[in-house]
C-alpha cells in the first residue's frame, strides 16, 4: 500500500484544498490498483491512515479503523500529556457511515450465536447473505463489501502543529484494539 500511495501522491505542496484533493485522488488510484492485482480482493482489503506534513501543517487522511493520534505535552495533567485523535474510525454503526451502507442496500448487524444473541462489533453484510461481515465501513479492496457502500474515500483532516505537540502515532486496528488513545 505505501508504494501505491507514494506513487499516486503529489510532488509539490500547494494550498490545503489541493493537498486534500491529491490525497483523495491518491487513495482512489491506490484502490483501483488493488482491484487490478492478481489476488482475489472480494474478501480481502486494507485500512490506511496517512499523514503529510508541510511546515507546521499536518494533513491526515484515513480509511477504515487505522488511526492517527497526536500526543501533546500537558504538564498540569496526571500523565504529563494529552492525546488528540487526528482521524476517525470508520465503523458501520457510525450514523454517517450507516447511512451510506444502508443506502447502498447493505445490512448492518453483528455475528449471531445459535440463539440469535449478538457477538462482537457491528459488521457490513450483503442484504440477504451473511457475507462479507466486514467490521469497518471503509477500506481498500474488499470488493464484495464495496457492492453495499464500503469505499476507499478518505476522510481528510488538517491540523496546525503547536510547540506542545510532541509525537504522532499512526497504527492499525491491531494496535488500537488493545490501546485507547489516552
From TrEMBL:
Q: Which residues form the PPM-type phosphatase domain?
A: 1-182
Query: What main location does UniProt list?
Result: membrane
* Assigned GO CC terms: membrane
Instruction: State the source organism's domain of life.
Output: Eukaryota
Any idea which GO molecular function terms this record carries? protein serine/threonine phosphatase activity
Instruction: Tell me which InterPro entries the record gives.
Output: PP2C, PPM-type-like_dom_sf, PPM-type_phosphatase-like_dom
Q: Which Pfam families match?
A: PP2C
- Where does the record say this protein resides? Membrane
Q: What UniProt keywords apply to this chain's record, in alphabetical order?
A: Membrane
Q: What is this protein called?
A: PPM-type phosphatase domain-containing protein
State the organism named in the record.
Favella ehrenbergii
Ranked from the top, the taxonomy reads: Eukaryota, Sar, Alveolata, Ciliophora, Intramacronucleata
